[in-house]
Amino acid sequence: MILSTTEKIPGKDYEVIGLVRGNCVQSTNIVKDITQGLKTIVGGELKAYTEIMETARVTATERLIEHATSMGADAVIMLRYDNGSVTTASAEVLCFGTAVKFI
Question: For 50-74, what is the mean pLDDT?
């Protein structure tokens, strides 16, 4: 599966199949919340939260690929990510784009 943030894939002609998406809501555990809360006192990267968000992005991307594959897509163009807070202890990552079939 080709994933592209651009509208065109060089050397490929295709027809649009439709919108595809994948999402993941990821939460932390109380220990990580406490340690990361303490880290905010001294500053610096909150590595546990960075890892949680990376896991959520990977999962959302895998789900997008599954959705595109189920539609018979060869690629996804205009790939984008969005994220938001669901609760104070969790965040959602949404991955979306346009599924296309090569012709």
Answer: 95
